[in-house]
Amino acid sequence: xxTLPVLYPSHCHGLSPTLGRWCPxxxxxxxxxREVAEYEGQGxxxxxxHPMKWVRLxxxxxxxxxxxxxxxxxxxxxxxxxxxxxxxxxxxxxxxxTVAAIAVSTERPADDAMVSPDGPKxxxxxxxxxxxxxxxxxxxxxxxxLAMKAIVILGDxxxxxxxxxxxxxxxxxxxxxxxxxxxxxxxxxxxxAEGEKWRVEEEERRKRRRERRAKREKYDGGEGKEKRxxxxxxxxxxxxxxxxxxxxxxxxxxxxxxxxxxxxRRARAIQRLVRSRPEEAGKYAALGF
Length: 289
Fold this sequence. Notes:
Elements lengths: L22 E2 L2 H6 L12 E3 L2 E3 L1 E14 L2 E7 L5 E7 L41 E11 L2 E11 L3 H19 L7 H37 L4 H25 L3 H25 L13
Parallel strand pairs: 1-4, 6-8
Antiparallel strand pairs: 2-3, 4-5, 4-7, 5-6, 7-8
């Protein structure tokens, strides 16, 4: 039993030779890709430990239908299997799609009338044409398909052979051996991912603060900023006055010393008065003067 190579964490996918490109595969290659539970629903599949999301196929159109406002093109690339490539049907001036399959008309007058909302330009695309199709991998009722993003009609045999040779080189140079990431590369990718996660979270926090501030200003009738400025100024002034009062407030010792000085001052004043008026000396005798 062959042991599958280790799958690297998603923060290493930026180093993948397959994930960020159009992988030239055959229909049988697409059906052979394996799913991993961790990436379910993300449209990512694996060959060995190579993650793949976007593929490119070259083949001849053997069927072309429209179902429920979707164009479905069946492609035979000579690999022993056919695969369907689908996209939204180009908008029509009047509804012509029915529940039953109908052939896609190629007699629309304008080029832009043959452009799918998903991107592919379908003018001239018909049964018997050799095409190069690009798209993502999707599943419909348990069957793998291509979600078309682009389609090009190959003009001659040379272009067709060139596309097939590119697929052969890709399988030999890339898919034949497992993808290897060194420990240093994995560590660097992890640190970059953690930094990016922090940056995104910080941006979200800033966004929430801006939204709350905007709501407060709107609630205050546009005067919230000015009002808060006045309140902050008043608080600052009150704080300064409070600090000054604390600095100026005398201690208990100072208060007692002040009372003693005041008492001594009054005693000296009475003594001067007694000396200046001897006849009234008896009046102050009881006070000890």
